[in-house]
Request: fold
Amino acid sequence: MATASLLIDGAWQDAQAVLDTFRSFNPQTGEANSTAFPVIGWSDLDRMIAAGETAAGELASIEPERIARFLERYADLIEERREAIVEAAQRETALGAALRLGEIELPRTTGQLRQAAAAVRDTSATGWSTPTIDTEANIRSRYESLGGVVLVIGPNNFPLAFNAISGSDFASAIAAGNPVIAKGHPAHPETTQLLADAARVAVEEVGLPSGTVQLFHHAPPEDIARLIGHPGLAAVAFTGGQSAGLAIKKTTDAAGKPGYFEMSSLNPVVLMPSAAAEDLDGFAALWAQSIQMGSGQFCTKPGLCFVIGQELADTLGEAIATRFDASDDSVLLTEGLVDSIDRGVRELQDAGAILLAGGANSEEPGFRYPSTLLMCNGRTFREMPGSMQRELFGPAGMIVACDSEEDLGAALRVLEGQLTACIWATESDHGGELYEEIRRTLRPICGRLLENKMPTGVAVVPSMVHGGPYPASSHPGFTSVGMPGSIRRFAALRCYDGVPESRLPATLV
Amino acid sequence: MATASLLIDGAWQDAQAVLDTFRSFNPQTGEANSTAFPVIGWSDLDRMIAAGETAAGELASIEPERIARFLERYADLIEERREAIVEAAQRETALGAALRLGEIELPRTTGQLRQAAAAVRDTSATGWSTPTIDTEANIRSRYESLGGVVLVIGPNNFPLAFNAISGSDFASAIAAGNPVIAKGHPAHPETTQLLADAARVAVEEVGLPSGTVQLFHHAPPEDIARLIGHPGLAAVAFTGGQSAGLAIKKTTDAAGKPGYFEMSSLNPVVLMPSAAAEDLDGFAALWAQSIQMGSGQFCTKPGLCFVIGQELADTLGEAIATRFDASDDSVLLTEGLVDSIDRGVRELQDAGAILLAGGANSEEPGFRYPSTLLMCNGRTFREMPGSMQRELFGPAGMIVACDSEEDLGAALRVLEGQLTACIWATESDHGGELYEEIRRTLRPICGRLLENKMPTGVAVVPSMVHGGPYPASSHPGFTSVGMPGSIRRFAALRCYDGVPESRLPATLV
Reply:
């Protein structure tokens, strides 16, 4: 097979302008997979946005039930094709096939699609469209689809549950009635292709407009910028690294379009002295496990642990280092990630952090890196807040050893915006001055505040917030996980003033 | 009086760095009012943001009832001081004292403050904070204050109801628990000063943090940019013209902070042939009145009317021109607005529009401009969409004479994002192809769709949407008028995961 096709306007089509080709790799072996995929140019994106615009117009008057049925049928088809999907995902990501991909991520993906379907059917005042009816003034409003295409740019780390064509951003954008152009991540194109084909069949079976779901994998930044500036493109959703995210955010902002960027987060944990005294080893086991989960490739990996006292820091460091030294090297998603984490570890060392475990490139084949632990002191952390807040995407964490409660408070105050923050405490801390001050500092800088719970599990429930202040995400008022909130990101607030009842949408009568 | 003081940290203070001074003018006479106000530099803004940061921290744990009481007491004080406030506003804006300012805008302002107070007290699932409680997973979320200061930049055209220190953005930001730094409009500083003093007294009486409400009137763009980039500044709200708005939006976007910009809108009206046939003169009377209301200085002024057929366009043009020619020149808010509308009329003429009434600078004293009517054809409009969509802020409108239904459809499709759009139709149109196509075109490009109703009245009700797609506003999912929606703009979505019940906010238990 030369270059695989693109999903354009309901059919697999060959790229017209192949600028280059790329292949995914098997991270276990470092060998390239067989299928070559195209890096496409503007003419293909132009075909996609044209088909998407047509779909947006048609979707504006389609009965929502059809959208709900699409989401459900798509979930069914993913389950029917689960063996092939999980096999491809395992081959392209090295994430565990049986447990992680098969038993956790795939059901989470189909569950999200079905939750989106349920949200489409919920036309109550607390549903995503929030119908607000003032019969006296004859003024009514609700959230509606944006009237254009949503570009969803997917990350590398969740090939199913955050995939641009099957994840929460996708399900949310579709639930609001928008067509999606998905940009799959180049690290797992075969997986994305299989998902896209299930979506294509579901679109056809249910009878949605043919341009409702489209897919490409790779295009130059300038063509993606041109797509974002196109009048038919209504919004952008991005999950990934900060430098790519900020570049695309700038383009989106300049075009005056809503953009939702989930970028990076260090997810600080503060270990209170009381909790350390009560069960340091229990904490160490949970923290180490949470760092290593999914090879540390979680947006919510707890990358920093703040403690008071060098002795405690050393004891914790030893407990973690022992675990890390006894672990196999982790397989990362791409060679680039291995380079990036290794460079990050060196930069942190140059800035004053000490290496306690790992940190050397793996000798084994494939894309591997050892579980790595660093330590710095509170003063270094707060005096070089930029250098010390470098995200290490992979199995690595850093202990910040503070001298005193004051030092801890000052270190926490330089933290940037985070997806999550956690206090590990005992009941005796509650109401105490230290605990309260830490709460006051952490609460406004994160989307999700946890107590005695590692942040790596993100439940897909309405009360979840997967978002946070900049630079963790681009807007503190939204979540990318949890219906119906995640859906409203892709909606416009629209009012009908003086419109006769017979001309109103059904949910506003 | 030399230079009036700034409201900083609960007290009227002198500016430390007076870069320049300015005075407001009486638009009726063109003469400067007596008080000189300071153009301030960074050191004063620095004092304000420091006091604001302290207030933000204190407000995070204050009982909401106190915020509600502040909003109500402030409304009471505005009413107690209404005579002085209306007198100053009339002198600085030339808007009608008795009716417009006294009977409409002031009660609207106090009503908005009281609605905000009621919204503060509403802790239900449909209230602004939207508490979402999942007891099984022990995950809860709600909207909370941002944790920093909101900068509110007010417009020139509503000295009370949209004033940076008393309007909807102010009331909304305060209701969400944020301190506000208000930048009053330099066209009506004396009015703003009187309002600010009422706010100051209410803050003191109710016992809110002293930095909750602060005020300045004028500072260089680079210092305002520095304020927006300051870590203590959490969000920006702006109502005003497009070029100033876009410059401040760029700074806000780059800082990664939420910004809500309401800029400009042409508010197109489509006059259906049937409605023209039924009562052209009735329509002409309403359109002319809506254009002239408040000297045409409304964000929702219906600036464009699309008709089919040159004969109808000519008849409508004559009806409007007759009314405009018989009207006194309108008094505009500033000399700059007179220059701007006059330049805009010339530019539209240069681009192919024909002048049917007004268009000449007034000979009378003060800042005046005659009611002005232009006409262009559909082809000119759609071939030069940029030039022809120039906002004329003042008593001016343009008829777009289309050749055919196709020409009308094509002209409407080049329209930029609008706050409002209106169809003037009869029942016989409903369900017809032309009506449906117009609806399909107008619905996604505006926040508020009207039928047989001019858009200049903006009811302050929960179902109102005062917002719309870019460039009318910076995000299509929000409204600046109508609680509780307007409040959520200034809130962060925050989750509590695994937090013991005793440590949860009261509304999440």
Summary: Chain A has a mean pLDDT of 96. DSSP finds 16 helices and 23 strands in chain A.
